[in-house]
Fold these 2 entries.
Entry 1:
Amino acid sequence: MSDIPKLNELEEDLLKELFNLGVGKAAASLSTIVTQEILLSVPKVEFTKSSAMVDLLNNNTSIISISQSIHGPFDAKSILLFPEHGGMEVVRQMLGSQLSDEAIADLHEEALSEIGNIVLNACIGAISKSMNTVFDVEIPKFNQASPEELLKVSNLLDSDTILLININMKLKDSDIEGYLAFVFSSESLKKLQGSLTQLIDSLS
Amino acid sequence: MSVKTLLIVDDSKVSRMMLSALIKDKYPELVLMEAENADDAQQKVEGNDIAYFSVDLNMPGLNGLELIEILKPKYPDSKFALFTANIQDSTHEQANALNICCVNKPITEESVGKMLEYFNV
Amino acid sequence: MDSNALTIECYWNLVNNINSGIIVLNSEKKILHWNQWIQDHSQFSLNTYKDQLLSDVFPDLKNSRIIAAIDDALELGLPSLISNIFSRTPFALYNSGNFNIDQSNNNRIQQTVNISRIKVEGEKPYCLIQINDVTASTVREQNLEQQVKERKEIESSLLKIETRQRAIMQSMIDALIIFDSNGFIDAFNPAAEKLFGYSENDMMGDNIAFLIEEFSGVKELRESIELMFELGIIGKTKECEARKRNGSHFPVDISISEIELGDEKFFSAVIRDITDRKQIDKIKKDFIATVSHELRTPLTSIRGSLGLLCGGLIADVPKKALDLIQIANNNCERLIYLINDILDIEKAASGQMSFEFRQFDLKTLVKQSIANNESYATQYNVNYQLIEMAKDLTVEVDEHRFQQIMSNLLSNAAKFSIAENSVEIIINFQNDFAEIDVKDYGQGIPDKFKENIWNKFTQADTSTTREKGGTGLGLAISKTLIEAMHGNISFTSKEGEGSTFQLRLPVAKNKTT
């Protein structure tokens, strides 16, 4: 079992800023496609293990996830996670209340794939720009399953480290909590840490 | 020429560091002060003459716009700039109403340059 | 063919035949290639527009998501999924047949767009755009939406109706039980719960036979419905004996009606506890019995004695005394008639009067009534004339009571006629009813008494009572009796010209000649 790396104050600060930038851009994009004010914020960032993440999600029977794998100087898998009811709420708020429950059930997969794509692209883009790197990014995959199945489908290994980012989405009538998870193998993690150190050094 | 002071208000240490570095690069003669939130900022301005304010929008406690609303009457001759990652129409409107400058994050040479240009240092 | 050439062949084949639009841009966002599909849906030929900026060929893409996505792909390698949900028709593409129409957004095909980067070793990145036509499924979705909306509206109205019906059932003061054609209970309202002492939950699925004494012996549950039909309960009100939870019995009025819901039949029973009413009826019955006995016995005795004295069989009675005894005797008789009349009216009104219905030839009955009253008429110098306008009419009546009515009418007619005139009795048939008109040419009835004519103790003028006798109860009794026999009575009259009383009865059989 590898240790969970601890972020120092500056590293945590940097990552939070980075993701705040990313989700801020995502929120702006989302706001334009539905002409509604959408606010996204990142209250917390920390490293964790896949088992711990599954535990965190376990009080929900079903999780909606949209994931995009990235390949480049380091590889990672980016996943946007919502508890099922939260995901459905996002769709309901963004598609409008006049739609029937049947229509929402019909469209939710497509809608959330698009929304996830916007959020993930914005965050991956923020990382790319700050580290001056371009990644190969896969098209988004949608999944709706129990936390255990999610673990299996995403091929999460015990040895993986997850950068877990809490996300809060504020819509007109609802506040929805979700997660952004960046999964790193031990190799990729080293490279990420290297990049982070470089960035911070360039500031002082 | 008297020495002017610029106050940076942002809850992110990294952001403060980046701003400091980039501003110092352009205008090394400016005196820079930092505050990490609205309360801290209000304390630090007591008894000081601040010429320029660079304020982050999203902070715990009072947000950037609210802080500017409080400070502006106290510093009628000073210039205020709002830095934000989440530029929405409503933010722009409020900034216009207060007659201040709105700048998009990320904090880069470009965005800092835009702010300094507005300040007309 | 080497694998490279094969791959390229496949690619071109695919690209040109695929049922999607494919556009390839270079890193400056200029058009390198697009496929047949794009040509077909835009009427732009590739040759004309190759090497132009995409945003020049499709001007409304400027500042749109599409351009932002293309930038993201080229600069950052990010793939974008643009579904039809939030951006419906980003590209100006149409189905054949719509090109001539004003090319507004409304005619564009509904689209989903996928944008991604193509990286080739050593070269600047390219952008791949794939466009799909989803117009058909969009239309389907909209239709489905419409259907769902309509269904919801119907459900909402039904719910409103159901809620209202339920509210009515719940607030009714009378007990209401709904059961199916096997007698199984479907609904049991609060009033029924209170009356029988069972909760709705207890009774759901149980059989109504359980609650009504008349059905308790029934084996097949379905039989209880048939039994109900037999007993004539369905569609009418019937008195039955009901059973409470605590085992006690009590009398009820049940009104059962049939409800047809599509293929299914249901029945609704309104039940009222008539224990109180029956008690009152019992009191009345006892009263009538008592009065019958207590009043009549002494009177009969008195009349007996007086009769004997009048007859001179006891002793010789001086003329003056005889006159007085005669007056006493007459008054005694009058009293007895009055008591009988009062008792009759009470009996008929409280349903105590028993009728024996049989079928009779109407003409025979009427001739009999004329014969009965002949002597009375002679007193007044009046004769009865029978006129038969319809023949062979059969009616179903209680003979005794019928004659009572006829005597009432015939005696009135004679009494109020002018001497030496006739009273006409006309038998007729109109609107499925047999009609007997008793027509006199006497005084007639003044207008101001006409509306009170059916009331008890009314006579046109109290002076006639002394002169002509009578209790004033006759017409009231006649009306009650004829209505009990499913007929009716009416009259016309003109003061100074006479009156006609019309008696109607339903015809039992009409033997047509």
Entry 2:
Amino acid sequence: MSLVDRVVLLGRAGLDTLAALGRSGLFLVNVLFGRARFGNGWTLLVKQLHAVGVLSLAIIVVSGLFIGMVLALQGYNILVGYGSEQAVGQMVALTLLRELGPVVTALLFAGRAGSALTAEIGLMKATEQLSSMEMIGVDPLKYVIAPRLWAGFISMPLLAMVFCVVGIWGGAMVAVDWLGVYSGSYWSNMQNSVEFSEDVLNGLIKAVVFAFVVTWIAVFQGYDCEPTSEGISRATTRTVVYASLAVLGLDFILTALMF
Amino acid sequence: MNDASDYIVDLRNITFRRGSRVIFDNVDIRIPRGKVTGIMGPSGCGKTTLLRLIGAQLRPDSGSIWVNGQNIPELGREQLFAARQHMGMLFQSGALFTDLDVFENVAFPLRVHTDLPEDMIRDIVLLKLQAVGLRGARKLMPDELSGGMKRRVALARAIALDPALMMYDEPFVGQDPISMGVLVRLIRLLNDAMGLTSIVVSHDLAETASIADYLYVVGDGQVLGQGTPDELMNSDNPRIRQFMQGEPDGPVPFHYPAQDYVQDLMQTEKDA
């Protein structure tokens, strides 16, 4: 391959990326600001909240529990060397609320709900369900995409909160019940060091931003995919990869701005 | 029929390309109101594309597409969705919503576009299902239906809002003789009983010719011929004759263009 061919390929890849960004931007504007016309929007939203949020609860709870337990165990092993094992509660809480809660929830959400959203929408496209909806005079952006997008926005921050609560509880199980850290120290140190606006609110803001980005990527990849089995497979992979990278990148930016 | 109002669809000077490939090159097609019009041609000649242009799921590179007095490519998003309520389309796969049962699939357009009370929706759905012979299957899910039944349910859904124009995309593909016979009969029957205009895109010659009042044969980005089925059967045009008689070789060659056969065999490299 000659140098010119390589430059051409690079240019084409750049143009394709820009075109995809443009399409995803227009897509988002149409989904969020297009005129809603359907009276059963709430029913659709509740159905998607169940599919996207409630069905993700198991993986979030189990992961939160184990991550909290591991944090407490690792934290104890390090802090005990300095005679500061009483601070394990605040370490667990701050790590979960500021970082691991929103980030791990977003990564799990991308893998569980994001990939499912992409595959579902992609399959609807491949089986002409979206086309038939258009020909019935129903905008699939309003009827199919919008409820899924809003369900993601709403449910992921709630899942992040559940993750943090379960993680802190898991940390207490290990630190207090197993390793013998004084219960009063675990909880009171946590209460003294965690600030609502600095830690809880900033963590929540992170979760909201991640929810927005992950769900947007998931529904767009499904809607924009090539309507073949291979196309759906590629789109599903792209959802997990792009969403994970976006979450980790944005986490650094948000952390730099917030703390 | 020389008055514009006699034609429900009027495609004027339509050019449509996919990348560098020209699908339609300055094509004119008019669909007479109240008739069954067949659009025929070899696979990949753009028949389905034509339906998607009429339904504005694709936009032409140039030309106008008038449907019921509206130039479809110029409509805004909201106007377009309103215009589509007067069109019905039967997709090749049926395209039923897999999370809804047969009844809810047919009720779907009524629920989103009307404020009818539930008992009236029920009556209309049962009427439409009765028309396609599937009233008894209303509680089944799409994955419990055969291919032919799926298309009939999709047909009932497409006519739920009593559209003025029905478009059928390859309705006979992959059907057993009984299902095909049912679909052929239904298309004609519904057209006449409901006062519809029907466009049937197909390459199944005998079935389409048996119900169509008028036929277009398209290929190579052009309208190769048009007329009643009898006129086209007796056409002198070699392209049309080859298609209508199903001859394997002719203006459309049997062999894909390639270098000389003997020369090709003499070469040793795989990609030479």
